[in-house]
Amino acid sequence: MSKIAYVNGRYVRQPEAAVNIEDRGYQFGDGIYEVVHLYGGRYVDEDLHLARLERSLKEIRLPMPMSRAALRLVLREVARRNRVTEGLLYMQVTRGVARRDHPFPAKPVPPALVVTVKRIPPYPTDIEKWQSSCITLPDLRWARRDIKSVNLLPNVLARQAAREKGSIEAILYDEATGVVTEGAATTFWIVDERGAIRTRFQDHVILPGCTRAALMTELKAAGIAWDETPFTIEDMRKAREAFITSATSFVRPITKIDGAPVGDGKVGPVVRRLFDLFARHVKGDLRNAA
Q1: What pTM, to 2 d.p., does this model score?
Q2: Would you call 283 a catalytic residue per the annotation?
């Protein structure tokens, strides 16, 4: 069956899907996107992702292309037409098509919406095979990282640098302070030398990760404490354990950073527990139901 995309009100075969060359997403990166994991026919943390989409759109003064209820129907129809029950959905909203000029169009145009879905491998079951490595890089992104903008060139360059060194992610830090912000496309966490679970507090410097928020809810329900105080590169290098979270990484152990082992270089007991905790959330937690 051909892959089907939703493009501005039509379901079309992906090879035939197209947007206007004067779409402002193409010309200026003037748009917002979301990525949602589809597991067992259910969109994981769907409400969190749709809420973040609405927030990001509001921050750049762009209206929703349709109501949330209508958008939910589109997401399900895209999955149904592609016969995907285990996959990854991508949606993008831009300011639409207008003559190229930096300010917003003087006469508002309809927002453009594109939705696609693809199959991905099953949710990981072997945490030993899920462990990986990262590199560190200065954070060169724009100041409003809390907005999930399609402007991703610094993220692309950071991810490419990681790939060229055999790693899956680049952990970014503020050059002036040495404080870790997040991964190029993930939230970064450590279990510090005292055994505390830590990740950076939420503000305009990092993206409000949906998997981050979902994991925090699970931690609270399980009575597991965590800390949102900043930590530096030096703190990170002393950590017992480290991991990343995202809609595609879930809870992924990081056992090597910049070629050096994290802790003893093995998957630690805390990350192992959180991996199992989040697996239950993805696979059957009723709070996660669409």
Answers
A1: 0.94
A2: no
